[in-house]
């Protein structure tokens, strides 16, 4: 890339990885970094990339709001949605048939590539991040409006509390068993819930947390990245 790399994500097999850059290019490379293909898909920056669970499709989004579904072997566009509000993130459902889209205009869309049908969910501020539960029955969303919400896969708002943050929420992640939900907030806290129960509120470290990720295969170990300082691994047991 000639400019910043916005996203880098591995293929489910670990045999290749995709990158999206501020130069509008999307690339796919082999495990040792050898270039498989590269295409300039957007006039301005590409924001997000995500592999389908079976690795046969690659979803990419651009700053102009375009959403593309690519053949990962060739980079050929198989499905596309016209430009619209800026898309900040895309996430495949575990069944590989639906795609959740986080938008800057406070909306979340659940898209069905084959039918082009969609379901619209609404926040009160830009949607910074989203994550499907491992079973695919729930979708968690984090917004600049300070809320972390949980929706059903059909788009209905969960009856659980909206988990308000004092400032915007930056990142959400489900534990591998789907029991815990973690969120990073610009108010400086990392919070973990089990259903309605707030299990943890952690403020250790320098700067606000910007990303949270559960350790694969570990239901109670959470990796936290903050704007300053080293990564921290929280052990909830």
Number of strands: 22
The CATH homologous superfamily of the domain at 1-122 is termed YVTN repeat-like/Quinoprotein amine dehydrogenase
CATH class of the domain at 1-122: Mainly Beta
> What is the string of SSEs from the N terminus onward?
EEEEEEEEEEEEEEEEEEEEEE
The parts where pLDDT drops under 50 for at least 5 residues are: none
Principal-axes shape call: globular
Q: Strands across the major sheet, in which order?
A: 1-2-3-4
Rounded to an integer, what's the Rg over CA atoms? Answer: 17 Å
Class derived from helix and strand content? mainly beta
End-to-end span in angstroms? 42 Å
Can you characterise this structure?
It is a single chain. This protein has about 240 residues and is an all-beta fold. The protein has a domain at about 1-120: 7 Propeller (Methylamine Dehydrogenase, Chain H), CATH 2.130.10.10. About 0% of the residues lie in helices and about 55% in strands. It has strands spanning about 5-10, 15-20, 25-30, 35-40, 45-50, 60, 65-70, 75-80, 85-90, 100-105, 105-110, 115-120, 125-130, 140-145, 150, 170-175, 180-185, 190-195, 195-200, 205-215, 220-230, 230-235. The strands form six sheets. A four-stranded antiparallel β-sheet has the order 1-2-3-4, with no helix packed on it.
């Amino acid at each position: 890339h000639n400019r910043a790399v916005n996203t880098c994500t591995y293929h489910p097999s670990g045999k290749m990885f995709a990158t999206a850059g501020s130069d509008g290019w999307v690339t796919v490379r082999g495990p040792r970094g050898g270039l498989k293909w590269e295409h300039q898909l957007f006039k301005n920056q590409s924001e997000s990339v995500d592999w389908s669970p079976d690795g046969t499709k690659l979803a990419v989004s651009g700053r102009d709001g375009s959403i593309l579904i690519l053949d990962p072997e060739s980079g050929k566009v198989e499905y596309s949605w016209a430009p619209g509000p800026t898309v900040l993130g895309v996430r495949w459902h575990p069944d590989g048939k639906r795609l959740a889209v986080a938008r800057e205009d406070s909306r979340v869309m659940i898209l069905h590539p084959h039918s082009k049908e969609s379901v619209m969910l609404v926040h009160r501020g830009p949607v910074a991040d989203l994550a499907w539960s491992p079973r695919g029955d729930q979708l968690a969303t984090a917004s600049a409006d300070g809320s972390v919400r949980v929706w059903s896969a059909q788009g209905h708002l969960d009856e659980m509390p909206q988990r308000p943050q004092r400032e915007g929420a930056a990142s959400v992640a489900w534990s591998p068993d789907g029991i815990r939900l973690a969120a990073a907030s610009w108010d400086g806290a990392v919070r973990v819930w089990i259903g309605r129960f707030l299990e943890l509120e952690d403020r250790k470290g320098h700067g606000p947390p910007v990303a949270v990720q559960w350790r694969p295969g570990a239901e109670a170990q959470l990796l936290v990245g903050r704007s300053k300082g080293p990564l921290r691994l929280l052990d909830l047991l």
